[in-house]
Amino acid sequence: MPQSATPVQTPVVSMDAITKTFPGVTALDQVKLDLYPGQVTALVGENGAGKSTTVKVLTGIYQPNGGTIRIDGTPIAFGNPNAASDAGITAIHQETVLFDELCVAENIFIGHAPRNKLGLIDTREMHRAAQVLLDEIGAPFSTHAQLRDLGIANKHLVAIARALSVDARVVIMDEPTAALSHKEIEELYTLVETLKAQGKAILFISHKFDEIFRIADRYTVFRDGAFVGDGLIADIDENALVKMMVGRAVDQIFPTRTPNLGEDVLQVVGYDHPTEFADINFTLKRGEILGFYGLVGAGRSEFMQSLFGITRPSKGACKINGKIRIIRSPADAVANGIVYVPEDRGKQGAVIGLPIFQNITLPSLKRTSRSGFLQLAEEFKLAREYAQRLDLRAASLDQDVGNLSGGNQQKVVIAKWLATQPQVIILDEPTKGIDIGSKAAVHEFMTELASQGLSVIMVSSEIPEVIGMSDRVIVMRDGRIAAELSGDDLRPETLVRHAADITTAPKRQEA
Amino acid sequence: MLSRLFPARETILASAIMLLLVIVASRFHGFVAPSNLANVFNDTAPLIILALGQTVVILTRCIDLSVAANLALTGMATAMINVALPGLPIPVIIAIAVMLGAIMGAINGVLVWKLAIPPIVVTLGTMTIFRGIIFLISDGKWVNSHEMSAAFTGFPRAAFLGLPVLSWTAIATVIIFAIMMARTPLGRSIFAVGGNPHAAVYTGINVGKTQFFAFVISGALAGLTGYLWVARYAVAYVDIAGGFELEVVAACVIGGISIAGGAGSVGGAVLGAIFLGVVKNALPVVNISPFWQLAISGSAILIAVAFNARAGRAKGRIILKTTEANS
Amino acid sequence: MSDTAAQTRHIPDRLNSRAFRILRSWETLLLGVAIAIFVINTFTSPYFLNAWNLSDATFNFTEKAMIAFAMALLIISGEIDLSVASIIALASTAMGLAVQYGAGTPELVLIGLGVGLLCGAFNAVFVTILGLPSIVVTIGTMSLFRGISYIILGDNAFRGYPDSFAWFGQGYLYWVFTVEMLFFVVIAIFYGVLLHKTNFGRAVYAIGNNPTAALFSGIRVQRVKFILFLLTGLMSGVAAICLTSRLGSTRPSIATGMELEVVTMVVLGGINILGGSGSIPGVVIAAFVMGLVTFGLGLLNVPGIVMSIFIGLLLIGVIALPRLWSMFTARRAS
């Protein structure tokens, strides 16, 4: 049931019945969102709920197809990003969108730098003003530093300084803590308090509940592009919020299964990389689902890509069915029965521009062709077989994968790999950014694969998914294995403790 | 601060030029005499001016292959105007040259901005079109020095404070560009558009429009150079500066302007042009056939691009903490 | 393409029939242009419809087209080779040099092809092994390869090719059909089959659409690109043999500017300059269009440089007009 809190003040910005459609997709369906001065509003929703689109509408990147945005009660339309900026709305984006080749002061003031009498940029004044802003937020670097020399946390500070420099009334923070350490996150919280005290309205987008309950004053929940409800944080608890978000109780989504483990299929011994990971040892059994949990940036994807032959380890060996195999390229990995479903579908997974059937048969062309010549009938046969197994929803097999939804693109990528009849399938964040229906289908399917004797490695940052799906979980932290958990040890608290290094128990780092 | 003023690439290139001068000077002292160096600089001036225009275009992730054709067309047009109206004052001629060049640049810019046609296709097309138009307006005939007015041909050669006007034009262009790139919103936008077009949109910079202005700037400079070139050599015909667009791109690449956009400096482009100019002028002095010049500039491009790529190669993510505290 | 529109488990192979797709393709449009030019030429010049004249006209495009086919694959894969004309110069110079040492026709052919392959490999090493952008690398080798020709030849020219060598560029197979036409047809079929009918061709498309995803799908991206540079070099070698044989002499300025005509032919043929799409039949028709325009205007005594205006306009026009049209229709719809 949608519910609304009674506003105690007038919102600075209010979105009313905003709709945004793209060809084939309704990203936002009549959503509403109010932001109040001096308060933090958390925008909550699963991936694909429409949060990013909302940010783009508020900052003038997208123009909505319907509805009204009001500033102080007056309707306004943002034709372009400058109009939103002039209205005092500024955003700090998920990936810091700044300029590596420019210095800190230039990044802060690009587009609105102070000018001298000749109309030229007044560099001295710019650096002075930048210094004032950096001091205000306690940033520990020079205004002359090149942006490319700063770490992620410091880049965030530059983005925040930029937000302050335009004298924004509304600050949007899109998952600002995703790549930050604990200490840096604490500093960010202090900063948010400062901004609140200055009377700025803050829109805070986050997936982390502890964070939302710690700093937000209000919440707004979206689900599948639609408004679900809003209110005061003080009036709600975590469970109720989760229920609003997913629309059902969380612990019901995972299929039950009885694992049927066979012999060792994959053995990784002492994998090292100069900068990304070290000392990775584990074995994987036939029919097993092995979860890899860790914080973002713990080195899980980097290790998986090394196992798949994208990067080369500096040391270590990999045994498949007991025999040492050297994997120098993805082609070698595929030939040895290891396949990888990447996290970044658009860039690394589907070949957008090629039709569905060509995507599915791409790694299997040797089987469908005759002495190097394509056999279209064979290709369609193979593609149809796997498309139907995965319950792919598409108009035709000749359709460009770019026109499919995220969930169906993911199905194409998985179908492509299953068609190679692999032994080990690595799924990197397999359900990130796909709708709940497809999510359940992917989980169902993983279970089915494992029962058929395929070994599955699943990298996931979602604790319920890791616990609900895995037979065994390896936790990574700072590029190393922090723990290997199974059975009763598989509890959310244990995972988080190992992943975030807040345990006092002796760590298992050396094999 | 120091590393800001002297980035590694420019320092290395400047050292290479110095080394080249030292080697040549050891064989032939006269080469480094101030008057000869001034000649070399004057000879390189058109390349410097065009390289600056090309730099702006490349910084925005585009390329302008039509600069030499633009130069030749403007040069022919100004020469014919001079023949028809010998009394027209030089400032007017220069204004016409800059305007004509800018219009041709604007044509490139509009096609890239409004129709989103890849810049290499657009400028490949306009390059052949501009050359063809020269033939149409001139009927394939040459405009020779005796047809041009004395004021017309004398202007780039007129000495001022010991240097010809052509050299001063290059110096002025360098100064204006240094200020424009560092101190004007357009200059910073040009870097931003090439460095991170996605982010540029978020900061309210219009990517296509910035690319349009880059082409207009490049075109205007090509137009200006067109007049100076024709007046200096006192001849205009269809094929002048044929293939010069590649020398211009070469100067930029050698100067460390990244073809991927967003990275590079005015100083680098100038040094790249000077490097090519010194090589060209030094070859006859050290008794190497001028036929070596093409191969040398080709090798310089390959070395420069290999070097720049090595310097800028992305390292792997740093995840491991080398001093992992074991509790 | 909403997901709800296709609830059935059965997914058809194709929605549109083959005939429908062919009718709406770029190649069909281009073929229309070619026929129109042919008809206009027939009416404007009485000399046009003459078998011998038409046969002569094919020299306008056969050599360029040989390179254009290989270049088409290279551009589809997202790379480019601007050094092809310089490879011709170097290969031709090498053959001319060999003649001075008494090489016969078989040796000359081997040298021409060998230098082409070597130059292709040189480009390939810089692009695929050192990972440098091909546009810059080949602008560099464009100067380097021709520069070596200038170092060897300077102001001079190599002549004195053996009589039998003239067969490649001046020979006739039967009546008006030249040897170069045979090469053109054989090479067109070879590249057509390679691109459209083999696993290799599929890999080229995949790489051009998304090199990262292609790599992640187990395609050996760098190896494919290496082979494409080799093929482009090899074709430049073949073109060098034909052109040298036809001219009977070698100057270092041979084939100057041909790289741009080759790229124009490829783009006109509907190959996306940004990679990922295009077809060999398109390039074949584009070769005829360029040949017919040049020949037809030549008959009207239009000088070559003015013809280039038409080629330039054609290049921009064929890309701009469909975009202008869709902008126009979109504006009308809203």
From TrEMBL, chain A:
Q: Which GO terms describe its cellular component?
A: plasma membrane
Q: Which PROSITE patterns match?
A: ABC_TRANSPORTER_1 (PS00211), ABC_TRANSPORTER_2 (PS50893)
In terms of SMART domains, this protein maps to: AAA (SM00382)
Enzyme class of the recorded protein, top EC level: hydrolase
Q: Could you tell me one molecular function GO term of this UniProt entry?
A: ATP binding
Describe the location of the ABC transporter domain by residue ranges. Answer: 13-249, 256-503
Q: Which coarse location class applies to the principal site listed for this UniProt protein?
A: membrane
Membrane topology summary: Peripheral membrane protein
Tell me its EC number(s), please: 3.6.3.17
Listed A to Z, the keywords are: ATP-binding, Cell membrane, Hydrolase, Membrane, Nucleotide-binding, Repeat, Sugar transport, Translocase, Transport
Which cell locations does it reside in? Cell membrane
Matching entries from PANTHER family are given as: CARBOHYDRATE TRANSPORT ATP-BINDING PROTEIN MG119-RELATED, D-ALLOSE IMPORT ATP-BINDING PROTEIN ALSA-RELATED
The entry's protein name is: Ribose import ATP-binding protein RbsA
Q: Which organism is this protein's natural source?
A: Pacificibacter marinus
TrEMBL record, chain B:
Which Pfam families does this one have? Answer: BPD_transp_2
Indicate where this protein is primarily found. Answer: membrane
Q: What domain of life does the UniProt record list for this protein's source?
A: Bacteria
Q: Where are the transmembrane segments?
A: 12-32, 44-60, 91-113, 120-138, 158-179, 211-234, 246-279, 291-311
- Which key words tag this protein in UniProt? Cell membrane, Membrane, Transmembrane, Transmembrane helix
GO cellular component terms, semicolon-separated: plasma membrane
InterPro entries named among the record's database cross-references: ABC_transp_permease
Q: How does it sit in the membrane?
A: Multi-pass membrane protein
Where does the protein end up? Answer: Cell membrane
What terms describe the molecular function in GO for this protein?
A: transmembrane transporter activity
PANTHER family, alphabetized = ABC TRANSPORTER PERMEASE PROTEIN YPHD-RELATED-RELATED (PTHR32196), RIBOSE IMPORT PERMEASE PROTEIN RBSC (PTHR32196:SF72)
Name under which the protein is recorded: D-allose transport system permease protein AlsC
Tell me the gene name.
alsC
UniProtKB/TrEMBL annotation, chain C:
> TM spans, by residue?
28-49, 61-77, 109-130, 135-153, 173-194, 226-248, 305-325
The lineage's top-level taxon is Bacteria
**Which GO cellular component terms are attached?**
plasma membrane
InterPro entries with a match to the protein in the record: ABC_transp_permease
Membrane topology category? Multi-pass membrane protein
| Protein location | Cell membrane
Q: Does the keyword Cell inner membrane apply?
A: yes
Q: Is Transmembrane helix tagged as a keyword?
A: yes
Q: Which GO terms describe its molecular function?
A: transmembrane transporter activity
Keywords, A to Z, come to:
Cell inner membrane, Cell membrane, Membrane, Transmembrane, Transmembrane helix, Transport
- Which Pfam families does this one have? BPD_transp_2
Q: Tell me the function of this protein.
A: Part of the ABC transporter complex LsrABCD involved in autoinducer 2 (AI-2) import. Probably responsible for the translocation of the substrate across the membrane.
Subunit-structure text: The complex is composed of two ATP-binding proteins (LsrA), two transmembrane proteins (LsrC and LsrD) and a solute-binding protein (LsrB).
What name does this protein carry?
Autoinducer 2 import system permease protein LsrD
